[in-house]
Every structure is written in C-alpha cells, then in structure tokens.
Amino acid sequence: MANNEQLQEDHARLAAENAALRAELDETNQGVLALYAELDQQAEQLRQVSDLKSRFLSYMSHEFRTPLGSILSMTRLLEDGMDGPLNDEQLRQVRFVSASASELREMVDDLLDLAKIEAGRITISPGWFDLMDLFSALRGMFRPLVESNQRIDLVFEAPPQLPMLYTDDKKLAQILRNYISNALKFTPEGQVVVSAAMAGSNEIRFTVRDTGIGIAPDLLPALFEDFVQVDSPLQKRLRGTGLGLSLCKRFAQLLGGQVAVDSTPGVGSAFHVVLPVTMSEATEAQHAAV
User: Across residues 187-216, what is the average pLDDT?
Assistant: First the structure.
C-alpha cells in the first residue's frame, strides 16, 4: 500500500515537472517566433532603406547629368569661339569651368553605377575581343591628358601572345580607366605602365603600375571599400567621391574576377585585376539583362 502511494506521488511529481517543462518550452517557442518576426521586420526595413537609397542615388544622378551636359556643351562652344574669340583670361576661366563640370560628371557617373549595382540592375554584356584593341582605345582616350603633362609617361606594354577574351570589355575598360586615372593623379612625375599577362591556365592579370606617391600599408585593406580615399596632401587638392576603386572591385566581381594592390610609400603602386579568359556561363546568367 505504501509503495502504491509512493508511486502515485512520484507520478504526480513527474507529471507536474513535465507540465512545467512543456509550459517553459511553449514560452520559449513563442519567444523564438517573436524574435524571428522581429528579425523579418528589421530585414524588410533594411531592404526598404537600401532600396530608397539606391533610388535616391539613381534619381539624383540622372537629374545632375542633364545640367552638367549643358554646361559642358556651352563651355565647348565658348572655347571654339562661336560668340567671338576669348582673351587669355576668359579662356582660362572657361576651361576651369569645363574641368570642374567634367569632374562633377565623373562623380555623378560613379554614384549612378553604385545605385545600379546595389539595385541589381547592372547589365553584363560579354563578347569576344582582342586585348590590343582595348589597349589602343585606352591609349587614345588618355593621349590628350598625357600630352598636356610632359612629366609623366603613359606606357602600354605589348602583351605576350594572349588568347581572345570573352568578357564585358566595357566593364574591363572602366576598371582600367579608373586605375590609370588614379595613377596619373598620384604620380607627379615618372611613369605609368599598363600591362597584361596570363595568371594561371585560364586567367589574365591586368596591372597598372606607377612611380607615384605610394600608399601607406595600413590604408591598403580598406582601399577598395566605398567612399575611402587616400589621406595625403595631394589627395586634398583632388576632388572625388572615393567610389572609383570600390566600383573597380564590384565590376571585377561581376565579371568573375578579383582586384588587388601592392604599394610602397614614396616608390609607387601597382593595381591589379584578375579575370577569367572566358566568363563562365553561371556568371553570365547571374548578371544577364533584367
């Protein structure tokens, strides 16, 4: 009889403990569900904020492009003497306005590219092309700038025998343009060399090497992040968004490649982009026109 009573007491105690555990588990589950709901809500809010930021950048960039285009057109007309010849001081002022408008347009273009990438609306259009054609186009693009500065040489090294490339040549050209433009800005005198060579069996490494001011080692890890600029006296005289190298990194990733940099202060820098010779079908499909 005593044993039965003990068993009943143990059973009741276990049942009570089980009920308490079940209640605690239900409460925990409710807390987890509430946490998931809160996380989903916060994720949606972050998505909306990101979308609003991208839309703002896109809208702002488009709105700026029209008046900037008008300013540049007017300065070209003035420089050509359409309303009569300009004296030396007037020509200097007009060219200053033109240069400032061109710099601002480059900033606007960078912001527009960033907005497109973040919104997932960037389009990759790969095709077959010869590397020498790309180098020739870049050489022609920078010739006026180099000819106006006799202290810097821009050299395009003849590449070794390389295969035809299948990638987006316009995105690759934009990466190299940013590299070359930065190298020319931060090289008061000396040389900027553009080269290409195989890196492994199915990749090509493009390098833009300069003899400029170089970059401190502690700045290198963050150099390709958004809105990062080199802190130097020369940088303070040059305007920019700090997006050029960040866009290089993003474009390289879109093409299935990667970027890198080597630099020694006072000696110079070498910026690299490594891309597959042939863009993979998976990469192409992921960033097809939307």
Answer: 92
